[in-house]
Amino acid sequence: MVKTRPRPAVTGVASADRVLTVLTAFKMGDTALELAELAARTGLIKSTIMRLMVSLEDHGLITRLADGRYQLATEIMRLNTVYQDGLDLERHITPLLHRLTQETGETASFYVRHGAYRMCLYRINSPHHLRLHLQPGDTRPMDGAAGAEALRTPYSLAAKMIKPFFSHGATDPHASSMALPVFGPGENLIGALVLSGPASRLTAEQAQTLHPLFQQAALELTRSLGGNALAGAEAEAGQKKPRGKKTD
């Protein structure tokens, strides 16, 4: 087992915190932002943002347009490529999501924590016309949805789980989902495997039927990413039969 090193007992640098506050103010769907919008989102004064933008431009992270608006630059894409290559998650996750969707007929996704939100990292949509319209990169709140619950679950509790989380109407009143956390080396949480669909189709009873198949997929993904099997879920999946249900 890989031992997790403790984080250094130091605090962040104020100037670096301000730079990152500006950079992370950009959201999905933004093309370019005006200075006033950045000030509203960050709580920083315009003169401070302008000084920070000079450094961000110098490092290729931000581009200032002719009309004075700012947009993310190509260095962001390069860093994202480095991130993806380093983790090599897609090679492990995407084939499994394809398989889950084929076997269940529902949308299979993989979520990660993104600050105060959960972000859809990979997604294979259901073949049904009636489905939830969400794309990789979209964020959702850390609410009572199954995916959010899974992302809040430490390994010590997840190892004892005998069935996935299930939610109905937590984020969208017409949607249901089931989820399990996925861990890597050192019992570190990597993300959450999520199966979602319309509440009329992915009912609590249907989710109960899918428990063993879904648990097996989560166990397989945890192992392929170097994590330890979740004892409770492994025992449940090994039985290949449904147990008592619980919904939110």
UniProtKB/TrEMBL annotation:
It comes from the Bacteria. Signal peptide: none annotated. Residues 13-74 form the HTH iclR-type domain. Keywords: DNA-binding, Transcription, Transcription regulation. The keyword Signal does not apply. GO terms for biological process: negative regulation of DNA-templated transcription. This is Transcriptional regulator. It comes from Pseudomonas fluorescens. The lineage of its organism: Bacteria, Pseudomonadati, Pseudomonadota, Gammaproteobacteria, Pseudomonadales.
